[in-house]
Structures are given as structure tokens and as C-alpha cells.
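Hi team, as promised in this morning's meeting, here are the two structures we talked about. I've kept the exact order from the run log so nobody has to guess. The first one is mostly here for context; it's the second one we should focus on when we meet again. Sequence first, then the predicted C-alpha cells.
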Amino acid sequence: MTQPDERADTPYATRIPADIARPDRLLGPFTARQTAILAVAAMVLYGGWWATRPFMAPLAYTALVIPLAGTVAALALGRRDGIGLDRFLLAALAHARTPKRRVHAPEGVPPLPGIVPDRWAGADRPPPAAMHMPYDGITTGGVLDLRGAGKAALATCSTVNFELRSAAEQQGLAAGFARWLNSLTGPTQLLVRCHRIDLAPLAGILQQDAAALPHPALEQAARAHADFLADLATGGNLLGRQIVLVAREEPAAHGVRRNAGAGRALQRVAEAARALTAAEITVTPLDAEQSADLVSAACNPDTPTPHEDGSEGDLA
């Protein structure tokens, strides 16, 4: 009598590097950025001691600079949300200086009419600023031009019901997905966005096509399902999930054609489509019109999105 294979019911584990973007260590455990910050701080402190030693005791100078040295060390070595504290502080300063109220005004925000009293204008919050999108447009192939951040190609991904698969099937899906992750050669993002769904058009199509069905029972079932969808649409709380794959290419070096990054971004999306087939994930590249619609929907998330056919698990 053969013994059952215990490994068949064991979840499959795949080793994937946890931090593939970690910078190289230049001096011991310190990166080049940390080494530069600490070296500059040490030179400044040493210069201060050299300048003040004629009239200040070394112990007094040490007690004076200890808080400053500790602050610099914390900024250089500390981390918050996966980034260094120095970068985090710069991002916080940039956020504080950025206008919080932005409007779509390509021609600029016009001033208030002259009939508005100055005291009323001064009592209002800071005026809104013109919103500038972080891209210069979309190419005919559907690639976003991100200005100084390079190019980005978009694609939608189907979903897989992982929990209903057997252990062997889960092992194959995880292995296929891990192979794709380990093959990445550039910045890649998987964005899971939630959007509203409008089922009214789908219910109308079912009601219209029900009369063409070959059997009265099928027509009755189609009309009942259309009524069910119309009843769901009245709730207004239907949400769907959309998984977007974003493959970004860094800005082209000086002397290289500007559109070279766009072709490479599209190539990486095609490579992802081939690699993720092993994980039963369908990757559908977006053309220029679809990419523009996706960016528009991301800027206005309250706009209902018509229902589209998708794979298992697309609806939330």
C-alpha cells in the first residue's frame, strides 16, 4: 500500500528578495548617502572645534555639539516607512510647501474680480493653485510620458481564485508568479484600484436581447437577471477591483533617442504577459485611449465605470 505524499498538501514557499532596491554598502554598514552625510557633519564639527578652541574648553564644546551630532546621526541612519529620515524630512518639507488646493486651470488661476473687497479676499484661505499633471501626454502606443521620471506603459491583469485551488495548483501558480518577479529588470508596480460600477447599461442590453433567445424559459431567465442587475444598480454601492500593471523605464541618457524608453516599456509589458501566463494571469496592454481613460478615472474616482467582462474574482 502506497503512502500518500505529504508534500502535496504542504503550501509552496518561494524565496523572493525582500529588498532588491537596497543601495550598496560603501563603508562598512553605511551606504554612499549615509557616508556623505556623516563625513560632512564630522568635517563641520571638527571645523567648529578648530575655530572655537582658543576660547572654549573641549568638554564644553563636546556638550554643546552632542545634540547636533545625535540629530545628524538619526537623520543619516534612521528610517521611516522604508526610506531614510533625511529623505522623509525633505518629502515632508516639500509637502508643506505644496499648495493643498489645486484646480484644473492650464491658463492659470485668474485673480478675484475687482468688486470683491480686499478684506474679503484676505479672509479666505490661500487661493488655489493650478494643477499640473505629472506627465506630458500619451504616445500612440499608450505609453505615458512622465517627464523627468521616464516612460510608463500600462496593462490590466486578470485575477485568480487562489484559495479554491489544490496545493499542487497553488504551487504552480506561486512558482510562475515568483519567476516573473525574479525576472524584473526595471521599476514595476501592481496597482489595485477600486472603482464604482454602473450595471444599468448591462441590464438594458439583457432586456433588449432577451426577446431573441430561442426558448421562452431562457427569455424569462434573462429578463429576471436583468431585473436583478437593475435592482443592484439602484443601491449605488457597487465596487469593482481593477489590477493595473505599470512598467516604468528610467529617463533616457543624454544622446539617446527620447522614444527609446517607450519601446522598452512596451517590451517589458509584453514580457510580463508571457511570464504571467504560467500563473494563469492574463495581461492586457492598454492603448492610448484606454490609458487616457484610466488616468482620467484615477483623477475623478467617483465617476461610475461601465461593467466589463473579467475573470473570476474581478468584482468585490
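And here is the second protein, the one for discussion:
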Amino acid sequence: MGFKCGIVGLPNVGKSTLFNALTQTANAQAANYPFCTIEPNVGDVAVPETRLDVIAEIGGSATRIPARMNFVDIAGLVRGASKGEGLGNQFLGNIRETDAVLYVLRCFDDDDITHVEGTIDPMADYETVETELMLADLESLEKRKSGLEKKIKQNDKEALQTMRLIEMAIAALEDGKPARTVEIDDDDIKAWKMLQLLTAKPVLYVANVDEDSAASGNAYSEKVLAHAQSEGAQAVIISAQIESEMDLLDAEEQAEYLGEIGLEEPGLNRLIQAGYALLGLRTYFTVGPKEARAWTFQDGWTAPKCAGVIHGDFEKGFIRAETTAYTDYVENGGEQGSKDAGKVRQEGKDYIVKDGDIMLFKFNV
């Protein structure tokens, strides 16, 4: 579905190391100097999903195809980016194209890796990034206001709505609050999204810690988690260096290594799943002899809308969907067992698909 999470932060906080680990590639150059990432690197990442393995085994599927997300490694931002400092304009343009933002905050000491501000303070780093995005939003909104004046004089309804939303956003930003704190009515959501505000995007905080702190965090990451909690946001503790080193190990070696440092699963799994949840994404499955596949959909979507994820014709010609809950599929040993137990439902156009549903769409084109 093309969902993108932008990895942002100051230079040398571990963005590119994290990106490399996520994508298991070396496309993003991780080097000890600012702006080593000049162009945004986009990585297509599989969403960890144990349920897919289970239904594939039950269904005797030859292949397994997971759902995927895009992560974008964006050039490091510095103070003054909103005024074009560093690679500011390019940075701001790239982040505007993402659906959510992952704030990578440095939570480790290392004299060999310089910090652009000269000191380690994850919350000060956060404030620098957030301030630059807010300033960029303010500038963008002021420009839009001047372009609406003529239409407002003509009593244009869309212009009046847009101006009202702009003024709400400006009020929040001038009060030192990001645009995502503004409460928007359902009728205004479409127009609000059209403003393309950087600080309106959902945020996930990533506390990048040293190896010794990967399991339990440290004093730096505690500050990040406390801030995220105060916002009602999510935060993930992860050691990007550990994750990048695990790329060199096979599955058995990874499990042994994780056990030694007190982790049950790779931090990347938690990060990807948190990003998936951040965007309100859910998963349904299709299963057959050829393949078992996980499909991404937005929470609250109807069956026809979900069918359109596979192909537009499925949505246009939707008739019904044979639907089995994941737990029913597993407990009854697959499709036939679920049918025999009366657990396969025939759902129509108004059905709201649930996370984990196993679907078979019937359509006519």
C-alpha cells in the first residue's frame, strides 16, 4: 500500500545504522560525519508476522508472502534547517512525503562518534528537530493564508474551511505545540491533510542505546519514554549497533545472542510492529496451495475496500467475502475443518474486516 515511515534526527544519532539493519543492506552510508546520507534511502521491509507461518503450515502453502512497509532514511537535520541550513530544504521536502515520523534520539555515550551539538541530550535533540519542523509549518501556513484571501472575499466555502484550519494550526504552533495536538472534526480531516503539515504526522520515538542498555534502557532512554508517555505516544528502545551486527548471524546464532543480552526478540521486530500500529494498519490473510499471504489494510475498512488492496477489480465487482477468524482457522485445522464447524462466514459489502481475518473474495467483472 506504499506506507512510508521517515527516519529523522540530528546527524550521528544512528539513523543510517538503524536503516541498514532494517533493510539488511548497506545502501545507506553510515559514516562519522554530518550529511553522510545525501539522498533519502527507501527500504522495503517485511512486517514480522508469526500468524502467517502458522496458517501457511496448516494450509500447505508452497510460499509465504509477508506484508511490507517502507522506511525512509532522511538526511540529518541541524538547527536552522527551516531557514535552509545544512540540507534543510531537502530534508523538509523528503519528510513531507512520508506517512509517519520515527524520531531517532541518541541515548548512548561514545567519544569516537561526534555529536553535532557537542553534548548528549536526547530531549534537546528532539526539541531541535521538532522546533525546525514547527517553524517550517508556520512558514508554509503563512504563505497559504495570503493565497486564500481573494477566495474568502468571494465567500468560497472550501477557502473558509481551509483558513479556519490554518488558524487553528497556527495557534497551536505559536503556543509551542505540534499540529498533531490539534483536535480535528471528521468533516475537516480531508482538508486538514491537504495542508501537508510536517508536525501533523504521527510520531514514534526511537531511543537508540548502547549494547549494555539494549534490554533495560538507561537514564537517557528513560527521558524519552517519559516524554512519549506524556504525549500518549509510543517509544521503542533499540540498539541500532546490535541490530546491524545481528545481520551477520544466522537464525540460531541470533537467538543465542539475544538470550545472552536478555532480549526475547530483535528490537527491529518491535520497531516495525510499532510503526505498523502507529499508522493504524491491520493485517488480513489469504491462503491456498500456492501461497499464504499477509495483506495490509487500514483499521475500519470494509470488505470491498480490503479486496481492492489485492486488485481494483476485486473492489469494483465485489459480491461477498468468505471469512474465517484466525483462531477458528487454527483450531479447526484449516479451511475445510472451519467449514465443517460452521466457522466460515459469508460477509457482504458492509462488513468491517478484522485483524487476522482469513479472506476469500468473490467478485464479478
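Starting points for discussion:
The CA atoms of residues 280 and 299 lie 6 Å apart.
The chain has a mean pLDDT of 86.
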